[in-house]
Amino acid sequence: MRQWQAIVPIKQGTGSKSRLSGVLDTSGRMALMRQLAGHVVAVLRNCPDVLSIAILSPARPGGWYGDWIKDEGRGLNAELKRWHIGLGGSPAMVIHADLPLVCAADVSILLASARANGSAMATDRAGNGTNALALASGGAFDFRFGAMSRHLHTSQCPDMPVLERVGLVADLDTPDDLSFAESRGFRVEQACHREGLAAAPALHKAAMKFDQESRP
Hints:
Blueprint: E1 4-9, H1 26-45, E2 50-57, E3 67-70, H2 76-86, E4 92-95, H3 104-117, E5 119-122, E6 132-135, H4 149-154, E7 162-163, H5 166-169, H6 175-182, H7 202-214
Parallel strand pairs: 1-2, 1-4, 2-3, 5-7
Antiparallel strand pairs: 4-6, 5-6
Helix pairs in contact: 1-7
């Protein structure tokens, strides 16, 4: 049964994935970010528990016709709090846009765990961050994405399970992260290596399909 509201924060601009500058040029990194976001959106679209998908970003991504929330520059945690309050108590999930190995089963297990325990999260490979967070109710919650967010999130909900599934923990920020993902089958779209390309197509295709299937 579809009931979860999902939000995908996306960092835009030439500073995206700056720690990959030794591997990809600026255009390639921006295209990679779109490739990754497109993959995450497509996974959410194929998850039977997800009712709606919103993108949080400073500007509406080109080709995205689904829900969009403008990032007003107040910081990620403040923006997420505003969104969460506006849901009126609906189950909510935050998932990062740079998870190249995530699949629908990963998301479904995260949401099932949150339903059973009130909340659930997925950490990163280092075990310190938060790559996804699911809250089964609209009660007050202090989003603390950033350094040591795993501890800052679980300290609010002592019974919160922390998932360490490969698809959820493997984010993509550094050359080592890229090597880890590639060793498990991920491939950077060839377009991301080409100077001057504005965007990879994955986000646009997933967004348009989700928008069409969501219409009454």
